[in-house]
Design a protein that fits this description.
binds iron/sulfur cluster; 11 helices; alpha+beta; five-stranded antiparallel beta sheet; five-stranded mixed beta sheet; globular
Length: 356
């Protein structure tokens, strides 16, 4: 197999690693975070690597990437990396170049930060730019939210890490199920069936098979082959539209934003947690999504003021009790927030020890 070569998949990551990282692979002893946007990694060989992180606007012009590459050529031997949240990291071995690099990045308008207890970039999905299933835009909402949190990217003033994510439909390419604050696009209406063209546009057996709840049946309408949707069974996932363009479900009134909080991957204080829905629906409000931005800020800043050091948002909510969470944030608690999934009884709190 060693000789088998294909053009599938990415190249081996080691081919593109800066030499100092390759030489010290698996030998790192510890790291420090001296200021927002700067990391210092120390290896057992004595090597020290400084990392300077900036936020990228995520949708990048070629000119912007050339600008990053030009900076990397001059300071970092031509190496840079993108984090999974699309921050850009420049790694240096010469400590005397760290401040000049920061100065140049700032002079060019790039925010330096996003490490440790500063807010990191928001990971998001494709939105109206590309994906067909989107209930909301992705980059537009993220821009509106990050514009308001810009200062928090450059300052480490939070109790712990805060990760915000966005997915524009509940297929959740954005991993919103495990973020401190998650913005999720939701549809609330079943697909609209275009009987006129469906038979020409779609494979009907494929459309029927695509539905996870078995809500779609083949039928004939006015002599034309088509499908019918059982609205009671539909959970508005959009899977059928992926298979059949004659079943769109995006709707100005029915599609909008839900907000989830309290998810995390970390093992510190508590085990990894899934996010919970705290705002079931907000309308789609391009271009600045004011209600969504307001709700995110309300949750975030209540947490910042009330949480203890090192407490993630979900740990804070669990400590004070979810009843208090709604009280403190001022978000209304509605029946829509009660978990009615039929196998949910293992997740319910069944004791009488409420904290109101
Ligand atoms: Fe498409 Fe949904 Fe992924 Fe957004 S989250 S890119 S709408 S599949
Ligand atoms: Fe089925 Fe999802 Fe389509 Fe509803 S939106 S009919 S649940 S595939």
């Amino acid at each position: 197999m060693a000789e088998v070569r294909t053009d599938f998949g990415p190249p081996n990551y080691k081919e593109m690693m800066p030499p100092v990282l390759l030489e010290n692979y698996g030998k790192w002893l510890y790291h420090e975070n001296p200021r927002a946007g700067v990391l210092k990694h120390v290896s057992e060989t004595g090597a020290v690597v400084w990392t300077v992180r900036i936020g990228s606007p995520r949708l990048l012009a070629i000119d912007t990437i050339r600008e990053f590459c030009d900076i990397a050529d001059r300071y970092c031997g031509g190496h840079l990396r993108f984090t999974s949240r699309h921050n850009v990291e420049f790694m240096l071995t010469d400590a005397s170049k760290v401040q000049p690099l920061i100065d140049e990045l700032k002079a060019k308008g790039w925010p330096v930060g996003g490490t440790g207890r500063a807010i990191s970039n928001i990971v998001h999905t494709q939105g109206w730019l590309h994906c067909h299933t989107a209930a909301i835009d992705a980059s537009g909402v993220v821009k509106a939210v990050m514009d308001e949190l810009y200062d928090d990217f450059e300052k480490m003033r939070f109790p712990a890490h805060v990760r915000i994510s966005l997915a524009c439909c509940l297929n959740m390419c954005g991993a919103v199920h495990c973020s401190d604050i998650a913005i999720l696009g939701v549809h609330r209406k079943p697909p609209m069936v275009d009987n006129e063209y469906l038979a020409n546009m779609c494979e009907i057996p494929l459309a029927v098979a695509s539905c996870p709840t078995g809500a779609i049946k083949a039928t004939t309408v006015d002599g034309k082959k088509s499908v019918v949707v059982n609205d009671e069974k539909c959970m508005y996932c959009g899977n059928c539209f992926t298979m059949c363009p004659s079943m769109p479900l995006a709707d100005a009134e029915g599609s909008g934003v839900a907000i989830l909080v309290g998810g995390k991957l970390s093992n510190r204080i508590s085990t990894p947690m899934f996010s919970k829905v705290v705002v079931p629906f907000l309308p789609n409000e391009p271009p600045r999504w004011p209600q969504t931005v307001e709700a995110v800020k309300k949750i975030l800043y209540t947490y910042v003021e009330d949480a203890r050091k090192y407490e993630r948002l979900g740990d804070w909510a669990a400590r004070i009790g979810w009843e208090r969470f709604f009280e403190k944030t001022g978000l209304p608690f509605t029946g829509h927030l009660i978990d009615d999934y039929r196998f949910a009884y293992t997740t319910w709190r069944t004791s009488t020890q409420f904290k109101f």
